[in-house]
Structures are given as C-alpha cells and as structure tokens.
C-alpha cells in the first residue's frame, strides 16, 4: 500500500519516501513536498495564502 502525504505549505500530495519531514521543537511535524516549500515556510516565514503559486487556500 502506497502512502500519500500532503505538503504542509502548498497542499500538494506526494508519496512516502519523497519530500522532507521537519520536526519543530514543540513536537509539531511538518512535511514538505520540495525544498521550495520548506524554505518558504522555515527560512522566509511566508504565509501560504499570500503566495500566488500555492493552490491551497
């Protein structure tokens, strides 16, 4: 059975074994489909609803 995850930033689905998992110090698990989503969340601290290429509302 193939497991699908949803990106914490853009909402795109991706397969188990792809992407990056990031665990914050408070225990929150964030899963990202690409380094682009990871950088926009962690380094640049952007909100998904303000970025035009994100399909997630």
Can you describe what's shown?
16% of the residues lie in helices and 25% in strands. By secondary structure, it is an alpha+beta fold. The chain has one domain (4-48): Ribosomal Protein L24e, Chain: T (Roll), CATH 2.30.170.20. A two-stranded antiparallel ribbon has the order 1-2. A two-stranded antiparallel sheet has the order 3-4. A hairpin with a 5-residue loop joins strand 3 and strand 4 (29-32). The longest helix has 9 residues, at 35-43. The radius of gyration is 11 Å and the shape is globular. It starts with a strand and ends in a 14-residue tail after the last helix. The model has no long low-confidence stretch (mean pLDDT 93).
Key features of this structure:
single chain, alpha+beta, Ribosomal Protein L24e, Chain: T, two-stranded antiparallel ribbon, 1 helix, 16% helix, globular
């Amino acid at each position: 059975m193939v497991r699908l995850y949803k990106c914490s930033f853009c909402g795109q689905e991706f397969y188990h074994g792809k992407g990056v998992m990031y665990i914050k110090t408070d225990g929150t698990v964030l899963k990202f489909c690409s380094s682009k989503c990871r950088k926009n969340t962690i380094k640049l601290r952007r909100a998904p609803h303000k970025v035009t290429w994100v399909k997630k509302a």
